[in-house]
Design brief:
By secondary structure, the protein is of the alpha/beta class. The protein has one domain (20-273): 3-Layer(aba) Sandwich (Rossmann fold), CATH 3.40.50. The protein has nine helices and eight strands. It has helices at residues 26-40, 75-85, 97-103, 105-114, 159-166, 179-191, 214-217, 229-237, 265-273, and strands at residues 47-51, 66-69, 90-96, 119-124, 170-175, 196-201, 219-220, 243-249. It has an eight-stranded mixed β-sheet with strand order 2-1-3-4-6-5-8-7, sandwiched between helices. Helix 8 links the parallel strand 7 and strand 8 (243-249). Helix 5 packs antiparallel against helix 8. It is globular. The chain starts with 25 loop residues before the first helix and ends with a helix. The mean pLDDT is 93.
Length: 274
């Protein structure tokens, strides 16, 4: 008879009720976090969820783990520092396309380059939802709205291409409409060493009701994951944004600071007390 699992998804759920709009894809992503942590058997006190600003960045409040709701665009700076200081923790950064690819874009590039062993989950809805519907870096150039009549005319930011080119060790895409697949993807990302990036298409049904149709557009990528950056680049450059799955998994060793170059928390506390 198999032993009962050490944890279940509800063990990671806080008592704070989410304030997202009904139908928001982030509800499913939140559920996927709990399922993923339970699948990995992670004690809640050994997990830290870090975020910036935006609808999706509320996630730390809704999880019963350590968490930090940081400032706009700085989730990866905080997550990187935490992982280097406390390598025994499982560190997951969570955010949205505006937080991660606009004000946080520079941090995104260098987090990929550094390849610290953490996971970054971005809920991409191609709009600034919390600030009432402005176009984001990933918004289609012809998306017409009251705030951008006729569209921006700007080429969208391609996060998976940028992640690969910048050195991310794991690049994948999932869809919030399938929370079990999202959970499995987060599990795979956490298990893979180095910097793992997962884009989760998460519809904003309030400001982008057209995204309800994503469930008919998403599909599993027709090819298996590759460890060849050149092959992955060719695939991603022709991708229409709706192929799901692990699109690249590399074998770069994660960055670790040289031995002896860190300070223990007790040492830092003693400095401040002096």
């Amino acid at each position: 008879m198999s032993a009962a699992p050490a944890y279940v998804a509800k063990d990671y759920k806080s008592d704070v009720k989410p304030v997202w709009c009904p139908g928001c894809g982030d509800f499913s992503v939140l559920a996927a976090f709990g399922k993923a942590f339970a699948e990995l058997g992670l004690a809640p006190e050994r997990v830290a969820v870090i975020s910036g600003i935006g609808c999706s960045s509320r996630i730390p409040a809704y999880t019963r783990t350590y968490g930090f709701h940081g400032v706009h665009g700085r989730a990866l700076a905080l997550a990187t520092g935490l992982k280097l200081a406390r390598p025994e923790l499982t560190v997951v950064a969570a955010g949205g396309d505006g937080d991660g690819f606009s004000i946080g874009g520079n941090h995104f590039l260098h987090a990929c380059r550094r390849n610290v062993d953490l996971t970054y989950v971005v809920m991409d809805n191609r709009v600034y939802g919390m600030t009432k519907g402005q176009p984001s870096p990933t918004t289609e150039p012809d998306w017409d709205s009251a705030l951008s009549p006729g569209g921006t005319g700007l080429r969208p930011f391609n996060p998976l291409v940028i992640a690969l080119a910048s050195g991310a060790n794991f690049v994948a895409r999932a869809f919030s409409g399938d929370p079990n697949a999202c959970a499995a993807m987060i599990v795979a990302a956490i298990r893979h060493p180095g910097f793992s990036f997962v884009e989760i298409l998460s519809p904003c049904v309030t400001f982008r009701p057209d995204q309800r149709g994503w469930k008919e557009q998403v599909r599993q990528a027709p090819v298996a994951a590759t460890g060849d950056p050149a092959r992955a680049a060719r695939r991603l450059m022709t991708d229409d944004g709706f192929n799901l799955g692990v699109l690249y998994q590399g074998d770069r060793l994660p960055y670790r600071p040289p031995p002896g170059e860190g300070a223990r928390p007790a040492d830092l506390e003693a400095e401040f007390a002096a």
